[in-house]
Amino acid sequence: MRRTHPIRAALVACPALVGLLLSAAPARADSPLPLTVVSDRQTTVRGGEFTLTLTLTNPYDTPIQFVYQSVQETYGTSLQTGLKFTETACGTQTNGCSDNVHGGIARYDVPLGPGAVSTFTVTYAIAPDSACGDATRIDFYSYLYYEYNGGLNNNSGIVEVPGTQVACT
Fold first, then answer.
1. 3-class SS letters over the chain
2. Whole-angstrom distance, CA of residue 58 vs CA of residue 72
3. pLDDT tens for residues 89-113?
4. pTM of whole model > 0.70?
5. Distance between alpha carbon 38 and the CA centroid of its chain, in Å?
């Protein structure tokens, strides 16, 4: 009997717990995660938007068949008083995202064939009355878990996601 289904059920049932446990210190994957992340703006003014682009590349000679990924704000971001931002769009080459990508799931189209690349974007809007300044940043981290080789192999870990500094003008 394959063990894929209990693992999937546990991951889907406990995303908040996983996020809390993993947010304290970055974990290391057994092998480098094939994920790259970029923010389109290093600095964004209040009332503006910025977009994160996350790209998953399959480095294996078998398809990636299952992917769980969350994008959550860092602990430092959550402590910043008066910082206001919301997710306004999510998707691109995926089945979409959960209702709220903070702690939610990005659902890639799978299987992702050998050497194939899939990208999704998440756009955030910063409120016009948000806190701002040189030390005010919105940063994220992403927990990624995926299975390949018919479910016999998996990899997981945390990737730091560069966000944006919130400028006052």
1. CCCHHHHHHHHHHCHHHHHHHHHCCCCCCCCCCCEEEEECCCEEECCCEEEEEEEEECCCCCCEEEEEEEEEECHHHHHCCCCCEEEEEEECCEEEECCCCECCCEEECCCECCCCEEEEEEEEEECCCCCCCCCCEEEEEEEEEEEECCCCEEEEEEEEEEEEEEECC
2. 23
3. 776 545 556 554 445 566 677 889 9
4. yes
5. 11
